[in-house]
Amino acid sequence: MLYRLILAALVAAPLAASATALSLPGTPPDSVAVPGPPAATRPVSASNPLPWYRPSHVVLQTGGGLGMIAGGAGFSLKDRLDLDILIGYVPEKYAGSALSLVSAKLLYSPWTLPLRDKLTLKPLSVGGYFSYTHGTINDEEPDQYQPGYYWFSTDTRVGPLLGSRLSYALPATASGRSRSLSAYYEFGTNDLYIVSYVQNRRGLSPADILTLSLGLKLDI
Amino acid sequence: MLRGAGLVGVFGLLSACQLVEFSPNQAYVPAQERGLNGQALARLQTAPNPDDTVRFVFVGDTQRFYDETEEFVASVNQQRSIDFVLIGGDISDFGLTREFRWVHQRLRLLDAPYLTVIGNHDLVGNGRAVYREVYGPLNYTFRYQGTHFICLDTNGREYGFNQQVPDVQWLQQQLADTAGTRQTIVVGHVPPTDEDFDPLVVPRYTAALRDCAGLVFHLGAHIHRFTVGQPYHDGVTYLTTYSLQKKRYHILTVWGQRKFRLETVTYGVEG
User: In chain B, which among 124-153 make CB contacts under 8 A with chain A?
Assistant: First the structure.
């Protein structure tokens, strides 16, 4: 069922994007040479982008294998590429030991669709994550196993992500940058689940290996 | 206070739906999937065979063989009068909750109750906590038709050979508890002949088994093949079984005084 939903979202996303492009007939094509106003008279850009190395937003999320609760900050490039660094936590009650996770998520969102008033939608975010888990019960001591005893890492996971994001425009910052509060969901999985699925395509379905994260993003 | 309770409620709801996974290493499952060994034993004791014969299936290492597990279940369900199925450890490959659940979704379709002993792969990451949640204690015993089964964690390497695993003192206590016992069977994933068994515990472990007059044999898995013999030349028989991937399993029948029969079943092999 969820698998179908993702497929539907994937199919719908480019259609929606082309629909909005068509609905703006007044936009001049790029090739027309219209001399712009001199640089000095140009108003201060409303977007006034941050340099890439300054965090542009904070994040809070649950699930996705990155913590019961995970928070952090992220960098944004051209409002399309987001790199989020998160610290996550799972209490002992849910894992047998308290787990701390450090993860990095890279997501590319090619389209932004205005919905109404202050709402915009990024219908497709695609990317991946890397996570490191600290605090597992059996933490692989240096001399415990000979090299290659277990071919996989017990604490480092990687996996793909696919989701959407809905944003609500907030009043701009003092320096004129636009801000918004976004809610997002991401479906994902991890390397070990993928291996399990690939070798058991009769017994397991893609839905068996899916994880879901739900989160909020606030521009700063 | 109320807000805190609400927050706990929200997380409870999210965690009940396993899609929102906090970590692949998490260790909780829905209530009906907890303590499965205990549930199986309760089922076993409600319908005991009238005679003194115990007939059970023994196989190891279901790890990451979900397609094969379905074939295994179909084959075992065709066997007559099986009292229970014993899985010799390595239920999972990565010690992850979802793997345990995937295996259980298939093994619960067995007509007979199934029991497990913990394997080294089940102890990877937070597997120890996952096994406890899903199956119950790592060391446990049960009696069926006068036969005392002692199932214990023998995966010494997973504890860095700390000389505590297997727990020989606990084993000796169980072996000494002979009330209502005609004979005894000890089950551990890693056999003491293997290099993953704590070498410093081997002498104490094998001595404890040697001193048990009613011991039928010691059952193991881990090495993925059938072996049987008396490696310590002390009258104690050690047996290991196939991994599930080999499409073979054993049916063990024990009766009388330390009498047993071993059958090998091959299934689903083409050609």
Answer: 124-130, 132-133
pLDDT in tens, A125-161: 999 999 999 999 998 777 888 888 888 999 999 999 9
The answer to whether the CB of A192 falls within 8 A of the CB of A152 is yes
Question: Are the beta carbons of B88 and A186 closer than 8 angstroms?
Answer: no
Whether A100 has its CB under 8 Å from any CB of chain B: the answer is no
Q: Is residue A19 very low, low, confident or very high in pLDDT (cuts 50, 70, 90)?
A: very low
Neighbour-count burial of A144, counting CB atoms closer than 10 A to its CB (0-12 exposed, 13-18 middle, 19+ buried): middle
**What is this model's ipTM?**
0.89
* DSSP per-residue string spanning B121-162: GGGSBTHHHHHHHHT--SSEEEEETTEEEEEE---GGGGTS-
Q: What is the pLDDT of residues B157-199, one digit of tens each?
A: 999 999 999 999 999 999 999 888 999 999 999 999 999 999 9
Question: To probe the interface with B, which of A196, A202, A204 has the most B CB atoms within 10 Å?
Answer: A196
Ordered by where they begin, the domains of chain A are 48-139+147-219 (2.40.160)
Nearest Cα residue to A185 out of A211, A213, A219, A218? A213
Measured CA distances, A134 to A145, A154, A210, B140, B165 (Å)? 19, 10, 23, 30, 24
Residue B57 belongs to domain with CATH number = 3.60.21.10
**pLDDT (0 to 100) of residue A117:** 87
